Amino acid sequence: MATLPPGQQRDELLAQLRATRDTLMSAEWLTRIRRAPPEQRTAAADAQFKVHIAILDFETAELDDIRDDLIANSAELSRATGGLKDALTSLNRVAAVLKAVSGFLDVVAKVVKLV
Predict the structure, then answer these.
(1) DSSP summary character for residue 109
(2) Verdict on whether the full-model pTM lies above 0.85
(3) How confident is the model over 73-97, as a mean pLDDT?
(4) Average pLDDT, stretch 33-37?
(5) Which of 67, 83, 99, 101 could form a disulfide with 6, with the two C-beta atoms 3.0–4.6 Å apart?
């Protein structure tokens, strides 16, 4: 993602956020979360909320308003996106998925506000 123009970076981030939302709303994830400890269920709900907010923010943000932040955080966004994609391939590791989603959202929050 580091070499992409800001508009394309935004589009790719939106695609990853949507894919993450779909995964966090899947029956497989729901089954895993229902068996997880309460703190992981709370973290999962928080992650779902923040992913949804990030999608809305990226959809409504003017590129001019986020362009500099996309460029400044490009390498970190790329690393976080790669880590998230890896974690989402194995939903049976709930803690790893939540850590990857949280890390991804921490970087996304440098571009758009999540709350």
Answers:
(1) T
(2) yes
(3) 91
(4) 95
(5) 67
